[in-house]
Amino acid sequence: MILNLTSCKNSGEESKISYEDIEVSPKIEASTENNTQESIEEEKQEKVDKISLYESKYEEAGIRKESLELIEDIINTDIENGFSSAQIAVMKDGELVFEDSFGLLNSYDQNGKRLTKGDNVTSDTMYDLASISKMIGVNYPLQKLFSEGKISLDDKVTDYLGDEFVEDTIFIAYEGGEAKDLETIKTWKKNLTIKQLLLHRGGFPASPKYFNPYVDQTKQEYNPEMKNELFSSYDGDEAAKEATIKAINKTPLMYEPGTKTVYSDVDYMILGVIVEKVSGKSLDQYLKDEFAKPLGLTRVTYNPLKNGFNKEDCAATELNGNTRDGYVDFEGIRKYTIWGEVHDETAYYCMGGVSGHAGIFASATDLAKLGNLMIDGTSGGKTYFTKEAIDTFLSSEYSGDNTWGLGWWKQGSQKRERYFGSLCSNNTFGHQGWTGTLLMVDPEERLVIVLLTNKINSPVTDKESNPNKFDGNWYTTAGLGFAPEIIYTGMGTDEDITDTLLEICDKLITEAEGKVKDSYSDDHPARLNLKSKKEVYEKASIRWNK
């Protein structure tokens, strides 16, 4: 069985709107059913207050109250039916016009029992951004360094990692690999550039799993019977990082750089090392000094527990460490609920929580403010990115694919509807993260939408069938794209949109029905998601007297 532990992948195939997807437990005591209902009613009241609080702002921005009410209904009802938690933030024309938070910091105990009482998510809660870290932790520094003339996209990796990046390479007969001999691979690595890494066309395998001692590298599969030729460390310290960089140097390419797009975390791990070498700062220090402090952001960081935060400042992720509820095991693996530590295995075990591909935690509001920098590169009179840098990194010229910039995902010819919805401009861009996170920026509307969830803070549905699919993945909220679709509905108009919003609800019911199989039990998350969507439709119909 293939165990895919990469952060995320995108097929690039055109799809219709789809709102389904694609880290010592806290002391939380269970409450009675009555107490649960009481807490739900209290939470609902808080949501009403939040919508009222921002009403003048989002209405002035042209965003409809009915749309935000429906988004909140979907998230709240999903949570009532088993989903974990979420945060949302919306900026328009440089101003925060809406934000809200939903659910508990940790939603299940390690046995998969639903927790009904505990600390609520607030607007200050930080979520593990997963692969959005690639944009904030690497693209942002590279765009700034590019603006300052300190890097060129055509710089070779060997300029920064040295000759050992080539000379230490070993040969692995990858299944599906195109290289026939070691010398060919070395030639490819010798000429590898920053630009090719940004395009995910560097030739690296998707997931070498440097942290796991037991991997069949020819298949990139977890195999407890086989030694990992590229194993570095699971200690999560500076020595582990050094060992991992050496392992990257050893890693052979699967195909010639520039000829194929394969989403690989290795690309951004290397880019992160390059940022550190050029700037003379670690990625976490660069984030603090060059972005967080100047922008006045206090809820964005790598390694929260090492930077003055408690785990209660964060939303929890996987319930049983990185074991996928016991499916994966090796010496050093975390088995406690991951809370305040990066979920991504390679970032945690190999890079000490600070890596170019994963590791950043942020609140939705602070992430939205960071995203807003991509509108024109400025904030508070300070220039972070030149127009040339933004245009260059968002250009599809280098990829020949209008759904890709340099690292950035683009709406292009409506091929990112799964995340961005179908109503945004074709120039919309952003990224998503495997933990259940979304950042999208529409430069034409000067609109930023952030939706953060911790969908993997839930049991694995069927670890033998798919150890990477958690109960949280089944819910509409985890699909992310429903929120942009609804926000754009009727935006900037005064027309009655309630019928259109009900049509969206009906589509969500149809999608949910399509995922339910006769063999599923009544408490299967697919059935609970369908139940949730029917409840949302009923609530909306009553609210709008339909």
From TrEMBL:
Domain of life: Bacteria
PANTHER family the UniProt entry points to: BETA-LACTAMASE-RELATED, BETA-LACTAMASE-RELATED DOMAIN-CONTAINING PROTEIN
Domain Beta-lactamase-related, residue spans: 80-469
Species of the source: Butyrivibrio hungatei
Pfam families: Beta-lactamase
Compositional bias of kind Polar residues: 1-10
UniProt-listed Gene3D superfamilies: DD-peptidase/beta-lactamase superfamily
UniProt keyword annotations, A-Z: Hydrolase
Name of the protein described by the UniProt record: Beta-lactamase family protein
InterPro entries documented for this protein: Beta-lactam-related, Beta-lactam/transpept-like, Diverse_Enzym_Activities
GO molecular function: hydrolase activity
Sequence segments annotated as region (Disordered): 1-43
